[in-house]
């Protein structure tokens, strides 16, 4: 490194720019993280302790009034549990529908077909939630496809509108979040070495037993992360309940939107957000604990 | 009694690629048979056909005199060891070994007993409660073997089981695998690309090339009497010349290979002007320095004069690559105590007509 090169570019690179650029590059994650995630979150926490003034304003204060009001209210007990329930049901249905689908695609021999099916699944994400929600609104309305077929095969007495309803909301949510589940599971199932399944077969285990004893346990972390992903996304759902549900089907996210947009009570909206975040945090933490315990176990 | 029978097995993949073409084989009870060949020769496909992971396009697969062509692997009563061992990473060593027994619904007392017995067999009782990733490569290999033989299968199938081990360990495992196989007296089919492994371990070798069997026989026979130039070249090292028979009598044939004439006593079924491959092993050549060149060359041997282009010292012997005047390379191997020629010096290689095989083309 002691060669005497003294072109201008080299001198600038080695003595001036490099040391500083290094710090910039190293601090990039810290800066983006704090700028876009930590600071907004702190602002949210701060605002949640502010006092609301009629007419969409608020003033700095330090009060836990909003928290006391929310946790003691029917909103918390009713809507929070309702939101968790919808998210839970969506997750379970996505898993039940998604696992066989992901398994089928992951075990296809032709790479072309695997890519094709994955592209089809990903392509449904190209459209925004709103458009897909409206699509389901139309599909489920009276005289439309789903009620007509349902009455034709005897599931409904006559073609009535299935929207807005709890049913419509769940259908819409499963449809919207299924790709996330399938993609997560797909990766996890692809990761299972085929020779493990063959080893199981060679030892006398039938396909179903092989699945139960080998494939399923080895895709456990995929099941947990896919479920956590869908669950957390479902908790924050805002557009779907508004389009496919009535007020009884509105989730916390809709109520937060209403507090801010309709009631003009920004601190209270912030409070509900924080509580929702804490609940999500607890769930994520549990999931993380479960998967890492799993990893410890298999060491 | 024959344990495994293949009759006219052909495996054609969609798109017309023929991985295996019309191969037939009978494996005897308790026999250790090895399928050896270069990668892509169809040996693994053949093994997977016996295991049931592949269905043959044509032909008959029999295990214990039953036709098993369409029987799935789990109903074939086989044990298999895979190249990457394929131990279940989420199960302990004991659970891995017990797997095949549990699937067969044995009593748990018997399973425990059998697991211990298997761990004793592979000399790893202390690993009972460990997870597979806490084992070394050699230990994983042994546990995979223990798992495969625990349910006492009819046939043990080994798919390149030693390929991922280092050389030293591989040689130890060759000996151990063979002695365990003898102890259990279990019919075993091994697939390997390593001809040395095939030679040292097997009762019989099947040399495969491009989907067909080149030669089947005991290791000694395959090595010293290869029936095709491919086998001669693949199993061990061989010098191969091609030429036509220019003269022949009761005892000796002379083959004209361009600039060189080679004498051979392998005259069976040979006629004048036949096209043949001349095959001889490096260890059958005697290396002498250039001066004594033609002295000993009677009519019963062939002498190659040339220059040492490469000299490889391998510890117990020296390998010479000798370039002849006609630009052909002949490989000779000498024990260390014999002639020692430097690179660039002239040497003579003498080949006795007894050691020279002629293969019809």
Q: What would the keywords be for this entry?
A:
heterodimer, A: mainly alpha, MetI-like fold, 2 domains, two-stranded antiparallel sheet, 13 helices, B: 361 residues, six-stranded mixed β-sheet, five-stranded antiparallel β-sheet, elongated
What does this entry look like structurally?
The complex is a heterodimer of chains A (299) and B (361). Chain A is mainly α and 299 residues long. Chain A has helices at residues 8-48, 65-72, 74-106, 111-123, 129-140, 145-152, 166-190, 194-202, 207-218, 220-235, 239-244, 252-261, 266-297; strands at residues 51-53, 57-59. A two-stranded antiparallel ribbon of chain A has the order 1-2. Chain A has two domains: 9-47, no CATH class; 73-298, Orthogonal Bundle (MetI-like fold), CATH 1.10.3720.10. Chain A is globular, with a radius of gyration of 26 Å. With 361 residues, chain B is an alpha+beta fold. The longest helix of chain B is centred in the middle third of the chain and has 18 residues, at 167-184. In chain B, 41% of the residues are buried. The model of chain B has no long low-confidence stretch (mean pLDDT 89).
């Amino acid at each position: 490194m002691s060669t005497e090169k003294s072109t201008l570019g080299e001198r600038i690179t080695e003595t001036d720019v490099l040391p500083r650029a290094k710090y910039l590059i190293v601090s990039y994650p810290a800066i983006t993280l704090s700028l876009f995630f930590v600071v907004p979150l702190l602002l949210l926490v701060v605002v949640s302790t502010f006092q609301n003034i009629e007419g969409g304003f608020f003033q700095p204060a330090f009060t836990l009034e909003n928290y006391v009001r929310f946790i003691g209210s029917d909103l918390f007990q009713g809507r929070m549990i309702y939101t968790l329930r919808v998210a839970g049901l969506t997750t379970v249905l996505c898993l039940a529908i998604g696992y066989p689908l992901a398994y089928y695609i992951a075990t296809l021999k032709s790479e072309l077909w695997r890519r094709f099916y994955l592209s089809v699944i990903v392509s449904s994400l190209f459209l925004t939630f709103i458009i897909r929600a409206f699509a389901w609104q139309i599909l489920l309305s009276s005289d439309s496809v789903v009620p007509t077929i349902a009455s034709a095969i005897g599931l409904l007495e006559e073609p009535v509108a299935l929207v807005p309803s709890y049913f419509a909301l769940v259908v819409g949510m499963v449809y919207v979040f299924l790709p996330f589940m399938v993609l997560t599971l797909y990766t996890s199932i692809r990761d299972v070495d085929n020779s493990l399944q063959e080893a199981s077969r060679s030892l006398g285990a039938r396909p179903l037993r092989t699945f139960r004893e080998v494939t399923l346990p080895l895709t456990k972390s995929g099941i947990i992360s896919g479920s956590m992903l869908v669950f957390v996304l479902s908790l924050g759902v805002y557009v779907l309940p508004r389009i496919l549900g009535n007020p009884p089907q509105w989730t916390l996210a809709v109520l937060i939107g209403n507090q801010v947009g309709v009631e003009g009570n920004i601190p209270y909206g912030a409070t509900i957000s924080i509580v929702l975040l804490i609940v999500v945090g607890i769930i994520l933490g549990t999931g993380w604990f479960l998967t890492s315990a799993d990893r410890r176990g298999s060491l | 009694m024959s344990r495994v029978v293949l009759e006219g097995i052909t495996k054609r993949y969609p798109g017309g690629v023929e991985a295996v073409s019309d191969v037939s084989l009978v494996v005897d009870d308790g026999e250790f048979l090895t399928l050896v060949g270069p990668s892509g020769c169809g040996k693994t496909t053949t093994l997977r056909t016996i295991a049931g992971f592949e269905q043959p396009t044509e032909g008959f697969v029999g295990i214990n005199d039953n036709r098993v062509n369409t029987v799935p692997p789990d109903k074939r009563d086989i044990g298999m060891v895979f190249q990457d061992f394929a131990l279940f990473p989420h199960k302990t060593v004991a659970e891995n070994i017990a797997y095949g027994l549990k699937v067969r619904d044995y009593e748990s007392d018997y399973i425990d007993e059998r697991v211990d017995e298997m761990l004793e067999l592979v000399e790893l009782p202390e690993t009972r409660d460990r997870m597979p990733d806490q084992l070394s490569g050699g230990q994983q290999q042994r546990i995979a073997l223990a798992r495969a033989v625990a349910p006492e299968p009819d046939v043990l199938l080994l798919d390149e089981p030693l390929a991922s081990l280092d050389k030293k360990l591989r040689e130890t495992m060759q000996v151990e695998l063979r002695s365990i196989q003898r102890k259990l007296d279990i019919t075993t089919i091994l697939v390997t690309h390593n001809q040395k492994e095939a030679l040292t371990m097997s009762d019989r070798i099947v040399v495969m090339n491009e989907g067909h069997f080149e030669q089947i026989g005991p290791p000694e026979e395959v090595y010293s009497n290869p029936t095709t130039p491919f086998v001669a070249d693949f199993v061990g090292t061989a010098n191969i010349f091609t030429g036509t028979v220019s003269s022949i009598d009761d005892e000796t044939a002379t083959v004209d290979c361009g600039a060189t004439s080679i004498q051979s006593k392998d005259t069976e079924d040979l006629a004048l002007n036949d096209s043949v491959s001349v095959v001889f092993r490096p260890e059958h050549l005697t290396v002498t320095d250039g001066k004594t060149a033609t002295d000993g060359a009677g009519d019963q041997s062939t002498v190659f004069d040339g220059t040492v282009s490469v000299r490889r010292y391998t510890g117990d012997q020296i390998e010479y690559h000798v370039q002849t005047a006609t630009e052909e390379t002949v490989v000779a191997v000498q024990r260390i105590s014999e002639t020692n020629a430097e690179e660039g010096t002239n040497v003579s290689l003498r080949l006795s007509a007894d050691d020279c095989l002629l293969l019809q083309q």
